[in-house]
């Protein structure tokens, strides 16, 4: 993902690459927060977060971006190649498949429509790459809130899969499904 800036109904959303050392304290606070339980990093130490994002930054098959809302850090997104990370051996990847994770920072003052604006911005950026044919996600089967949000932007569940750390709902969204969902 490149540095993207879009104006949405909730304000300007911008993406920039995660700096593992500079952003680690912020990300540690987000990832260990009870509202981020599905990221399974509740017990992570600061050094664990630094190490995880340093490894991710060094990996040619993954990228992490910090999302800013009107210039203030507000979300995290990760892009990965499912043929090489996360889903290896769990489904048959197709050319143009791109895996995605996102996390909206925990807040006591939620903004109506913010999470939808975030996922729409992330998906827009993923599909800005002409090589991306479909986006693949694998949220925890019990994360019903994200399943509903995924459906709003065009994801269609395929099946449950067993990952080492969780039972996940494998879902896909093609460029056409996304375009139809966001234009509705």
Automatic annotation (TrEMBL):
Protein species of origin: Streptomyces anthocyanicus
Superkingdom per UniProt: Bacteria
Role noted for this protein: Acyltransferase required for the direct transfer of medium- to long-chain fatty acyl moieties from a carrier protein (MbtL) on to the epsilon-amino group of lysine residue in the mycobactin core.
Gene3D superfamilies: 3.40.630.30
Domain Acyltransferase MbtK/IucB-like conserved: 16-63
A Pfam family of this chain: Acetyltransf_8
InterPro entries: Acyl_CoA_acyltransferase, Acyltransferase_MbtK/IucB-like
Pathway of action: Siderophore biosynthesis; mycobactin biosynthesis
Protein name (record): Lysine N-acyltransferase MbtK
Source species taxonomy: Bacteria, Bacillati, Actinomycetota, Actinomycetes, Kitasatosporales
